[in-house]
Amino acid sequence: MTTENIFKAIRKWKNLVDSYKNGIDTNGKEILNYLNQGTHFSVSGEEIEQWKRNLGTAELPMIHAYVGIHEDQLKFFLIDSKSDKDANFSTIITKDFLLEFNESKIESSNDIAVNVPPITSEAAINRSFRWNMFSTSWLKAQKKEDIFQLISIPFSDYEKMGIAGGQTCASFFGLTDDLEKKDADFPYHIEIITMKSLAIDHMSETAENYSTPRPPFTIIDTLNDYQLLKVSTSVFV
Length: 237
Known about the structure:
Low-confidence stretches: 104-117, 200-204
Strand content: 15-25%
Number of domains: 1
Order of helices and strands: HHEHEEHEEHEHEEEEH
Mean pLDDT: 84
Radius of gyration: 17 Å
Structural class: alpha+beta
């Protein structure tokens, strides 16, 4: 995809979620249809190595997973946080929202926890199940909130996968407790969980899950760190 097509895809998603928040309730069904078109996107060891080179010694290295709509398909546009802040859009990686997992690339899993412990595979599946069962409730709760336009994922989530070359890991949606919001009605936010192996007869024992939807932004994680969003949606501050 061209950079301009990526801008248009991100803008199309923003226009859709904005219309829902502005009272066009029928667009809620369309939002959920897009978010349930697939089950996951895959990331390779080669891509993780490229992100590592791009990030260098950046503080708080992250991967920004933008969502967009292109030719009626949900797409993910991945860019490392340093490239995003520098508006170096040549590093964007486009991902399809896949329905099937490529079992030929499954590797034995010995996930290693570094600094922050991962969650168990059971917890990961529970959060994915929560998303599948309660995505409609989540969407209704977003009437009072900013609907995400990207999810910010710690680079360490991918680095901990321990994969190389063409080996892949899978990233998928879940719903997790929102410790900041503490909303009694619906205290959850959408997240992206990453597992090294995901198949019927083989599954990693652990998963990484420290992603955060954006917006909202924070004092230490401002809109200026997300140049792809600013350029795509013509937001300037």
